[in-house]
Write a structure and sequence with these properties.
Strand content: 5-15%
Number of helices: 4
Number of strands: 3
Low-confidence stretches: none
Distance between the termini: 115 Å
Strand order of the largest sheet: 1-3-2
Shape: rod-shaped
Structural class: mainly alpha
Mean pLDDT: 82
Largest sheet: 3 strands, antiparallel
C-alpha cells in the first residue's frame, strides 16, 4: 500500500506548511520595515601620492626638462639651487627648488 504525503492527508505537513507561511510573512514584514541601505561614496582623505620634500637629480632633471649632466655641471661651478649630499647621494629640497624657480622668474617691465 502506497502512502500519499500530501498536505491534506498528513497533519504534520499541514503544520509545517503553516509554520513556513508564518515565517515567510514575518520575514517579508521585517524586510518592508527595515530602512533601505544606500551605499555612500567614501572620499579618500589622504592624497593619492604624497608630495616629496626631497628630489633626486633625476627627478629635478625631469621637472625642468634638462639633463642630469647639466645639473651636475651647475653644482661643479656653483650655479643652480642649493642641494644636500647625504651618504654620497645628491638631493634637492623642494623649498630650495621653488625658491630658485621664483628667483629665476622674469617679469616683463612695461
Amino acid at each position: 500500500m502506497a502512502t500519499n504525503n500530501t498536505s491534506s492527508s498528513n497533519p504534520r505537513a499541514e503544520k509545517m506548511g503553516d509554520v513556513l507561511d508564518v515565517l515567510s510573512s514575518g520575514i517579508a514584514k521585517t524586510a518592508a520595515n527595515e530602512p533601505k541601505f544606500e551605499p555612500q561614496l567614501l572620499v579618500a582623505e589622504v592624497p593619492a601620492e604624497p608630495t616629496r620634500q626631497l628630489l633626486t637629480e633625476i627627478m629635478l632633471a625631469d621637472r625642468w626638462v634638462c639633463s642630469v649632466a647639466r645639473l651636475q655641471r651647475w653644482r661643479t661651478v656653483g650655479e643652480g639651487p642649493q642641494y644636500l649630499k647625504i651618504v654620497g647621494k645628491v638631493l634637492y629640497r623642494l623649498k630650495d627648488i621653488e625658491a630658485y624657480e621664483e628667483a629665476c622668474l622674469i617679469r616683463k617691465v612695461l
